[in-house]
Each structure stands twice: as structure tokens, then as C-alpha cells.
Amino acid sequence: MENGGKKIKAVKLYACGYCINDLGIVFKGQKKEKRLFPALAVLIEHETFGDILYDSGYSKLIYKNNIVSVLYNTLNKTYIDSENTITAKLRKDSKNPDDVHKIILSHAHPDHIGGLRLFKDYELLSTKKVIETLKTGGAFSLVFKNMVPDKNIKCTAVEKCSETTIFKNYFDEVYDVLGDGSVIGIELNGHADGQLGIYLPEFKILFAADSCWGPDLLSKVKDMRFIPRLIQNNYREYLETCEKLKEFSQRYPDVRIIYSHGKTEEKRYEQQA
Q: What are the residues facing 78 on neighbouring strands?
């Protein structure tokens, strides 16, 4: 195997649109502060499977759901243009979107599934719960039908991990996403049922999706106001997941935890020689 025996050559982070919210409206005791929350998509350059995506960010379909889009953008002002979609950003990096044949999905909200229909022939990988939500959920579940992949797209539920991992004392549901140990999935419940975070052992990076909206907000989740609590699938589980992530981070400080809407710059991580 090339790349010194490593399974993943590089990882690239892309911000594909964003929304703006006031932290004072979200959390009690927080001063008014409008913050930009990017919609993260991650490209994984895999030696065996080629280019793989984790989530797909927003697309302009967020504006094309009639009254549902009006309500969504009133409560959660969203910004996305053609130049910042995931396919546009891949092309800018000389990547062909048609070469993406696997997409790992954290959960089925519009800032994660927005770009799925920009791709043609791929396999969608996620937990069984997320796939069921994607297929059967409606606007009240924040699943917008114009973003759901066509029926010809294969959806595969990830398999449980048979080996012991560093997550054994923290998370019950752990998956071997690609079957080769290169991408470990962790079920991060609370924000969405079956939400899938992924850990890349070769890079010591954990992509924690929307388990929290940023590392500096972990300590504030207990002060979340009533309406933002309703957005969570299960607020109690949301709190529990945040506590587990805090404990995990203290035990493994060398693991970089990246949240989908945290203050994360677009960046490329490459294997060290």
C-alpha cells in the first residue's frame, strides 16, 4: 500500500454556507452576540475507496421549500450561494464530484443533507436511525423532501465495530464505517436520533457533528432556553452526550474534536511522513 501503509491520505474541511444566530437568544445568562455557524463538509481522501464525504453542507435548495423555507430562514437565517456549495469547492480544488462514490451522513437536517442531490452515483452510509429518518421524516423533523436523495441511491446502515476502541467507556454504539478500521463511527444522540460522529484514528480527529454547536458552548448547554431545547430530538440525551464528550476530551486531550458549526477554518490535514 502506498502512503506508508496509511489508509487515509488527507482530510479537507469545507464550510458550505452558514447560518447566523444570537447566543443571547439561545442561552440564558448569555449576552447578545450574533455568531456565524458554518455548515461543515469533510472530504476524506481514502487509499481504497477514493474520495469520501462526511456531510454535504447547505445548498440553494434551502430556499426552495415554499412556506417551510420562509419559516426556516426567519428563525435560522441562512446564507449559501453557488460558489460555496460542496461541489463548487471540490471543483476549485481540482476534484471531480463524480468521483465521490461514498457519502457518510451525520444526520438528516438541511445543513447536512443540502448538497446530497448535487451528486449522482454514490452510496449513503449512516446509522439505521438516521436512514429511517431521512426516508420517512418531514418538515417537523427538519427533513426537507427536496434534499432527500433519489430512490436509486443506495443507503447502507453502518456495521457495529467488533474491536475495542477508545470510546468503549463513553459511547455504547460504535461502528466500523468502512469495514477497515479507518473511520470509526460513534452514535451521538440528543440533537438527532442516531446522529453519527466519525473518528479518524490516523489523524486523531473526532468529527462530532451537532452534538454541540462549538467547544466553547459545551459548558452552556445546561442553560439552553426553551425554544432551542425543542429543536433537539431529546434534550436530556443532548446533555448526556455533551458530558461524555467533555469527559472523553479530558481523558484524550490529544484527540482534536471538531463540531460541524464550531469556529473551524477550512483546512487540509495531510499524513505525516
A: 19
CA–CA separation, 18 and 22 (whole Å): 14
Domain borders along the chain are 3-270
Hey, what CATH topology would domain 3-270 get?
A: Metallo-beta-lactamase; Chain A (3.60.15)
Q: Which helix (H) or strand (E) holds 204?
A: none
CA proximity to 156, closest of 180, 124, 188: 124
pTM flag (> 0.90): yes
Name the 3-class secondary structure at 189. Answer: coil
User: Where are any strands of DSSP class E within the chain?
Assistant: 8-22, 34-46, 50-54, 77-79, 102-104, 123-126, 154-157, 159-160, 174-176, 184-187, 196-200, 205-207, 256-258, 268-270
pLDDT tens-digit profile of 132-190?
A: 999 998 888 899 999 999 999 999 999 999 888 999 999 999 999 999 999 999 999 99
Single-letter amino acid code for the residue at 248: F
Place of cell 454535504: 56
Residue given cell 419559516 in the structure block: 71
C-alpha distances in Å from residue 154, one per residue of 58, 59, 120, 128 = 21, 21, 11, 13
Taking alpha carbons only, the member of 113, 119, 125 closest to residue 260 is 113
11-26 pLDDT, tens digit per residue, is 999 999 999 999 999 9
Look at the chain and count its residues. 273
Indicate the burial class of 74 (C-beta count within 10 angstroms; 0-12, 13-18, 19 or more).
Answer: exposed
